[in-house]
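#struct-help
A.M.: can someone run this one for me? Single chain, 499 residues.
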Amino acid sequence: MFEKYVRFLRGVSINKVGLVGVVLTTSSFVTFIILELARIIGVFTSAYAGLVTYLLFPAVFILGLVLIPIGWYLRKKDTGLSGKELLAESFADPDTKIGFFGSTVFRTIVIFTLINITFMTMAGSRMLNFMDTPRFCGTACHSVMNPEWVTYQDSPHARVACVECHVGEGVGALIDSKINGTWQMISVTFDLLQRPIPTPVHQLRPARETCEKCHWPDKFYGGRLRTIVHYGNDSASTPAYTTLNLKVDAGKVNPGGGIHWHVSEQNEIRYASVDDLRETMIWVERKLPDGSYKRYRNANTNEENVDEDQIRTLDCIDCHNRATHIYKDHHDAVNEAIRLGLLNRSLPYIKREAVAALTKNYADSVSAMEGISNGFEGFYRLNYPALASTGAARLDSAVAALTKIYYRNVHHGMNIKWGTYPSQIGHRYGTGSGCFRCHNESMVDDSGKAVSSDCTLCHSILAFDYDKPFGYIETADTTNPEYQMQQYLRDEFLKSISE
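D.P.: on it. Structure tokens below:
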């Protein structure tokens, strides 16, 4: 049954070039099928196996197909035979005498062509699907993308595929992403990339096409109660609680303010920034009801001539600039670890010593792991020798938590240190300028009036550095000042959300 196909393969191997082409095409086809079956049943799961399966073997398959006609061309040139004579010589098939289009050779070519088209379609489809997976994005170029992969897995969007935000919809966006991906592979291969990699602010899709597919803009209203705890540098690492009522409203309920007022449909905020980096504003303007714009200029910058393509309409990612790849500030990371019980407050000066251990200047990750362990435990061995013995389990647990924090946020191979990628959410210590990029006394209009920086525009402060969480009451005595303060704060909160 297969004799004619074997004879066909032998025939197209007309010389060494053709033979190499047949060997490459046949072997890559068979190997691809075997590896694909192995991936389906779970034998191979790594991105590198996927790269070999979906990129290398299809490429080898195409190379083999190209070599076969080249071999025929060289054979024809050497012998001077016509195409029909070459067919007859190569295949020794009597059917070639009754016309090529009715011969076994032609039918075999048609069959193999259909097989080739089916194979390349399947391989191409599988390749595109594989390259759209987060595991491919995060692990295929491990040394480069490992920081993004680590933070992605520990983010609010860990179940959202990378392509949902980084690749647009349609054929054009797909082609652009693959061209950009090809350049990235070249950059990695020849070490042309920057370290750290700049935030791709100019390549991200508009928030209307990404964020708002899940975060419905018409639901940007109401308030959100948030309590922030940070711990002191004293021996007890004393907690201090700040409670805010965040005004999430987009301006429909409260026209005068609200965090999402900036991105509501009835408002439009535009700005230009120094070097187009979205960190230091040159000017910011808002659209008025009559269609004109009111501009506020930064008195600390001298740049006036801004290209049109550098003018940006503010949207979600101008503030939520680290919505997924979130690199934490060392203070925030330690505060969170203490709050979650990963760092035990029974250890004296745990907050101070944890921050000190994390922020020393380490040459690489290996020395950091050793330095954190030696420095942190060394402090307790020197100053609390009894604790170093009786509390060894607590110290070991703390060291494990600190090394995990360091590994997550600091990546020496990509020159990512504490604060390399600041967040523009809010205006807390250790982060970017956030709200104060626009809301500051240097951003003034033509009359000299500055953009308001009134705290109550975006939140009400219900408690600031309080020694207990908001709403926590130890006594029911109505004459107790602490009880009265808590009742007052509650009343203010209820009043703020009713407005």
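A.M.: thanks! The longest strand covers residues 223-231.
D.P.: also worth noting: The chain has 15 helices and eight strands.
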